[in-house]
Protein 1
Amino acid sequence: MKEHWSYIESLGLAKLPGEELPGVPMTQLEHIVRFLADSITASPLPAPWAAHRDEEGKVFYGNPTTGETSWEHPLEDVIRELAGMCRVCVSLSRSMRERSIADLREAWEVQAKEEFSQWYSAKDQSSGKEYYCNSLTKETMWEHPAEVLLPGHFLKLKSADRLLDEAYLQDLANLGSTLNNGTGKSWNLMKRTLESNGSTVSTEVRRFGK
């Protein structure tokens, strides 16, 4: 959790120009850092990325497929988007916040379906192993699209849930952490739901590719 807090601070997402001036309560800035740190701590990484530590204990991320390593979180673009969401939503009334998050969820669902629809499955002729192709970018990968695309979608949805939790928002204002130990179960449930009914995800990938 500590390293995530430091990482979020290093991105400079908590402050906008002028907010570093005297008179701006620091808690209004730090609650964004806490919210983002809580969110990424409880969310899975997109395949095939994994978190590691260097000799000094600093977290970095590795992609065993490409051999790439990075100090940046694989979902940094999503994290930046969530920073803006938090900044706006915490200042709204509950009814306005619920309406705004409902609109965001609808937009995210459309985006996720569109991204997922671009992928289709194929088989490597030499090995017979299944891989996946993007019909627009021509990108190919061995990882199932669900393992790559869903973590970002999951991160958005669970983060939105936090901003509808009044108890969490109160803790957020006090810089308290309310990490949900059941979040991992929620991720597994989302994955199982998509893969149920005869491997629905694989079926959808093939269908979208036609």
Note: The chain has one domain: 2-112+146-193.
Protein 2
Amino acid sequence: MAQTMETFICVDFGMTGSGSWAKFPVVADFKRLAEDAVFSSFITTDKIRIHTHLTEGEASALCLLNCSTVANKSREFAAGDIVVSCDIGGATTDIAISIVAGAGKLDPCPQLRVHPVGVMSIDMNFWELPRQTLRKAGLQQNADDLAKEMSCGKWFTSTRSSFARTSGVERIEIVLPPGHTVGDWPSAETEIHDHRMSIIRDNSISIHRDVFESLFEDCVQQIEAGVDEVMAKLSKVDRVPTVLGFCGGGSKTVYIMDRLRRRYGETTPIIDHRQLAVSAELATITGNSLASNMTQLQKFAQNTRFGIKSKEESTLKVDSTLRVAEENKKNPSFYMTPVWVATFASSSRRGKVARYTLFPVSANAADAGSGNKDRILKQWVVEVDLTKKKWKGGSRTKEHYMLCKIVGLGKIDVEIQSHKGRVNYTEQVDPESDCH
């Protein structure tokens, strides 16, 4: 592994923790604990960095804004909008309030109380049910272990995820694990004195739907309490959330989401796993990756200048001003990445095609303007067909401008404009495929 590590410039580990961890001394220094865990796996650690900037709720908010069909379809999120993200996990539910600060940037509000509840509370409630039923059926020694095996088995976990109050099924059947056989209990129908009583039939625990529904109650109530707390905080300052997003494994539980939609859906737009382009369980990982990519892109834009050279010119022109695109300033919608723009003036007086080579050049290169190939990081060739549109009010050989828009680490948009600013040609350049 040590030899493999030498081939990397740097390896970043992005980690998110529960928003409540800072309150507990044992895990208060989450970054130090993460470094101890990661660094112990490598001989040299000088090329490894640990990032613990985001809580699970904050990372989820980034994913909800960037990777949902709501965001991709309407781009309706703008500066000042409020995003409430609710990450329903196994043991905790992280809720965060974030404000869109501008293009690609979220400002988190002070951390909210994390509720110590998740889908594991449903599993624990269920474990007690077959445990008591099996003991009543005479299985005293192995009842606890068998009940635990059932609570982790595919029959229960699948039923837990798909159960809905509106399904119309009177009783829920949870099959005993393979290799275990238990006789019917009670043995006679006359011994069933309550229709809600859990029984054993055909090697399955048969549970009345009202009893099965009650397993979810504690989990749902605590999640609702957390969201209600958020709504109350926002109401005090006369604000409402632009969107309420749910992710994490618990958000794929039909019963939980049905309850939450009924409670909040009429007043607040909701995003859940059905609108996410990634798995709900991976929302925090995706959001953390987006934040990391955003940081890398900002550094790339700050530390890189762009040079351009036409076929007829031997001098490499280097742009010294790389600015955030004006459209982001005027209409700061929440895009995955803000757009940086570099502008170059150039002209072509021969033929119908202007051919340019675009160079990202090291910002620290003192001799960048000389076109020293040793200092050039990558290059792309852009061909502009000047016959696509006629130049307004003059010859097609007049001076025009190339605008290079950095919209991602692997994507640059190139626009050619006339001297009057009218767009005449647009081409997307992908450095991964067009690099020479």
Note: The chain is about 30% helix and 25% strand.
Protein 3
Amino acid sequence: MLRGSGTNKKKQRNNMTSNTRSAWKNPSYLQSSFGIFMFFCSWGIWWSFFSRWLTDPTHGLGMTSAEQGQIYSINSLATLVIMFAYGAIQDQLGIKRKLVIFVSAIAALVGPFVQFVYAPMLTAGGTTRFIGVLIGSIVLSSGFMAGCSLFEALTERYSRKFGFEYGQSRAWGSFGYAIVALCAGFLFNINPLLNFWVGSICGLGMLCVYAFWVPAKQKEELKKEADPNAAPTNPSFKEMISVLKMPTLWVLIVFMLFTNTFYTVFDQQMFPNYYASLFPTTEIGNATYGTLNSFQVFLESAMMGVVPIIMKKIGVRNSLLLGATVMFLRIGLCGVFHDPVSVSIVKLFHSIEVPLFCLPA
């Protein structure tokens, strides 16, 4: 029995090594991985400090918590609507990249948009500020918050069609976020608008990847989809609506609504300001938060490769429940500990929680 068990484990390790080697020879894997890497670089460089930028009186806009909450609420509503629209459109496009190229173009313009449109309107106050919040919610959601699900869905679709592991490709997104998060705090202390401009540069790189890098197998598949005599592979509108009749879908929606949604509010809106307040100066807090965030996302990137193995062992349902448990521990322990070291350790729980929610769902 022991010999058989050892042999099976050795075979599993050999299979994992073989899959990793073959992935590097797969042009679609390389293209998808680099594309999602650039997306998370473009997003992470400013998103990791977006809450600090809104509320920091020294380096940011100095908004109140109520004003910050209003922006996050409107952004979330816009993200929800645009996300559904993106899903319906991309289902009809199949593997075509028209929509992701459009989103990449928005990401490439985030720097000038924030400096010359968004920030001036937010600081103007009154009706101008509210209009700025609405415009910002559309632009930022279209380019990033809703765009995230679009890029992940397209990468997952490519993984099934062109033979590579989605988790391995998605891990490059976390790796990209980790790299830029390491620099984000230091750039923020110099000038927070630099974060948005670096996001534009990364967005331009992403635009080039999706506009010009088309592997041979993808070209062949695009020709097949363009053939008017080919059997339809994309779902019809009626088929998409019929999915809403599935009880398990609504169970998953309710589960995500009451777990990951509230957790995101805690992690993005509340935690950065709380963490920075634990240090003698906000500058030290910002730099430390950026470094910690980078380390956490590096771990998250590694966990993207581990979680698929866990899913195979315990199943999708139990993986989601495990993710919820880690989430509750993260929030609860932040209320128990009040020193930077302990809170930093608890923050690292995020690197386990994200893959446990992202991959099974």
Note: The chain has 16 helices and no strands.
Protein 4
Amino acid sequence: MKIIPVILGIAGVIGGGSFYLMNNPETFKGFFSRKTIKEEESYSRAKKNGKVIAQFIYKDDYFGSSSEVTGTLKAKCEYWTELNKESRKVMSESECQELIEELPEIKNGNKPIRFLKFDERGNFAIPKEYFYFLREDEDYLLSMLRGEQISEGPWTCSSKQKIDSKELIIKCEKNQN
């Protein structure tokens, strides 16, 4: 008999809590959200604050064309603010287009490319995330970083280091058959 009030009390707490959460969906979303309290930054804000350590652009017909009339290839852009994979973020289409316009290496091209620009903080970890053949053989990466051209599948890749900074660029172009 003494257990019945305990059960009714627990049921009341659960029922009341459920009623509250159902009537306040913002609380419910926040409770189960995987996001950290740290506010997500946009690419432009991260760049302005000097937090961007890598930028990646992938432009290929794999994504389809953004315009059937012009045949312009769609691009996917990502940026990193830290070395862990969780810091990799996808840019909005407008931010991606702005980045492409800023880069003379790819600005005027409509060819399929894979382009990675990273600073020394990106060491070898970031290139291996985008160029899978670099995961297998450390010599490939070292050869590429010395400026040698490497062909892998339909892609021909080369690199260069900007003289005025500590940025490295790896650019791969798809061989057109």
Note: The helical segments are 3-23, 25-32, 43-48, 93-102, 125-130, 133-136, 138-145.
